[in-house]
Design a protein that fits this description.
Blueprint (H helix, E strand, L loop, with lengths): L4 E6 L5 H10 L1 E6 L4 E3 L4 E3 L2 H9 L3 E2 L8 H9 L4 E5 L7 H4 L6 E5 L11 H7 L4 E8 L9 E8 L6 H21 L33 H10 L6 E5 L2 E11 L8 E5 L2 E5 L4 E9 L5 E2 H8 L16
Parallel strand pairs: 1-2, 1-6, 2-5, 6-7
Antiparallel strand pairs: 3-4, 7-8, 8-9, 10-11, 11-14, 12-13, 13-14, 14-15
Helix pairs in contact: 1-6, 5-7
């Protein structure tokens, strides 16, 4: 079989290893990424990492603002004569009219063992919910949200110390391997429908997802911190002041939720509903991060001080 010509749809740095693996073995006839966006204090218009890499490599590049009803982009995809399209963290929903353009359709690399964790943030929610295994799925894209039949799937154990940044790196490498296998066998893989009864969801994170819930157990607090490490990061409040926390780990300890049990070179020891949490680093708003002990001494925080309790609003 002649190697398929590939159109690649992706945007963030996560997708770069997948693009590199495809380009090493197949002809990439078109790269599609999100439009450039203002970045930083100067709001400089900046291309997403995949668009920047495509430009460096001299690959044909498109950055449509929308896909639905975009006849000119659909014509461009047809003119590329791609046999198959691959999406990896592209960030836009594909209309049905596009899915039918390549003769082998669209393949999507998704960072979970579907049907678990469908949606925008599977890496983050797997960590927040304390999963010890996740993985990568290559699926045939349909009109639903990660509902297409599974073509390939591979599990990945989650190391206890991994944050969302570490897990993303591991899954990106895994996705790069799996998509090469899928493309090498495109048209000959047996699609397996997903079991809807087993589906779970991983919605896009909000800033509040990073807020510490001291009324939860220590393990839950640490898992949430691992999941939000990239964004929005772990946030706590003390006397109404917003603080970014990092370097959280479980510990023995007992007290009222949010109560400071100790201040030492190890950091701050804070009670959870069950157990306690060590905090290594604290960053007050508009200031640099600093060792928790130094911050506590300067802020007058000592044993018996209490972090504010925060609860999510009822649905």
């Amino acid at each position: 079989m002649t190697p398929p010509r590939v159109a690649f749809f992706g945007s963030p740095a996560f997708a770069l290893p997948v693009l590199a693996a495809i380009q090493a073995q197949f002809e990439v006839v078109l790269v599609v990424a999100q439009p450039d966006k203002p970045v930083g204090r100067g709001l400089k218009l900046t291309p997403p990492p995949v668009a920047a890499r495509a430009a460096e490599l001299g690959l044909p590049l498109a950055q449509p603002k929308k896909l639905r009803g975009n006849a000119s982009f659909e014509a461009l995809l047809r003119e590329s004569v791609a046999d198959v399209a691959v999406t990896c963290a592209y960030g836009k929903i594909l209309p049905a009219s596009l899915l039918e353009v390549p003769r082998f359709g669209f393949l999507n690399t998704h960072t979970s063992l579907l049907p678990a964790y469908r949606g925008a943030a599977p890496i983050q929610w797997a960590l927040i919910r304390g999963e010890t295994v996740t993985g990568t799925t290559v699926m045939q894209t349909d009109e639903g949200m990660d509902t297409g039949p599974v073509l390939l799937q591979e599990a990945l154990p989650i190391a206890p110390q991994w944050t969302s940044l570490d897990l993303a790196d591991a899954l990106s490498a895994q996705a790069a391997r799996l998509i090469v296998t899928a493309l090498s066998e495109v048209g000959h893989l047996s699609p397996t429908p997903q079991d809807e009864a087993l589906a779970t969801h991983a919605p896009m994170l909000t800033k509040e997802d990073g807020f510490v819930r001291w009324g939860e157990g220590a393990a839950q607090i640490v898992n949430r911190s691992r999941g939000v490490a990239a964004w929005p990061q772990t946030t706590a409040f003390l006397g109404g002041a917003r603080l970014k926390l990092s370097g959280l780990s479980r510990a023995e300890g007992q007290g009222q939720p949010g109560e400071v049990l100790a201040v030492s070179e190890e950091g701050l020891l804070v009670a959870a509903q069950t157990g306690a949490v060590w905090i290594q680093t604290v960053q007050p708003e508009a200031r640099k991060a600093q060792p928790a002990q130094l911050w506590a001494q300067a802020a007058g925080v000592s044993r018996g001080s209490r972090f504010d309790l925060w609860q999510p609003a009822a649905d």
